[in-house]
Amino acid sequence: MDASSTQPRRTGWLDPRGRRIGGIAFLVTRLTGLAVLGYLYLHLVALSLLARGPAAWDAFVALASSPPVLVLDVLLVTAILLHALTGVRMALVGAGLLAAPPLDDPRLAARAPDSAWTWQVISGALVLVLVPAHLVAQHLLVPGGLRDFEAVLAWLRSPVVVAMELLFLATVSWHGLLGLRAVLLDAGFAARTERRITRALGIVWILTVGYGLWLTSVIVGHT
Q: What CATH fold (topology level) applies to the domain 3-221?
C-alpha cells in the first residue's frame, strides 16, 4: 500500500468534490473566514487614510459610495452571515450539543478541541455581538454609510467609543488569526513548526492591536 494514502490529508477540506452538507458547511466556514480576515487588514489600510487628514479620507468616502464598492459591501455582509451561521454550527458540534455528521473523508478527522479552540469559540461569541453593533453604529445609522473626517473626529471624542472600537479590533483580529492558525495547522506540520506558527500569529495580533492604538491616537490628535 502507498504510504501517502494512509497519511492524514488535512488540506483535503479544500477539495469540494463529493461533499456532504457537513463538509460543505466546514468549507464555507473556512473560506468565508479567510475572506473576512483579509478584508479586516485591507480595512485597516484604508483607515490609515484618516492619519493623512480630511482630504485623503473624504476622497476615500466618495469612492466607497460608488456602485462597484457597494456590490463588494454586499458580498462582505453575505460572507459574514455565512461564516456566522456555519461557525455557530461547528461550535455546537465541537461542544457535543449537535450530533457530528459523517465525515466526507475519515482522514479529515478534526483535532480534539484544545485551548485555542475554546478561545476561538469565546471570541466568536463576542464577535456575534460586536460585528452587528459595529455595522449598525458605523454604517447603517450613518447617512451615506460612512462618516466624513469631521464626523469621525466627533465620534472618537468619546472614551467609550474609543474603548469599544479597540475591543472590536482586538476581538475580531484574535478570532480571525485563531482561525488562520487552525487552517495552517491542518497542513500537518511538525509540533515545533506549529509552535512557531502560533507564536508568529500571536505577534501579528499584538502588532495589529498596537497599530489600532497608534492610529486612534493620531486621529484623535487632529482634534
A: 3 helical TM bundles of succinate and fumarate reductases (1.20.1300)
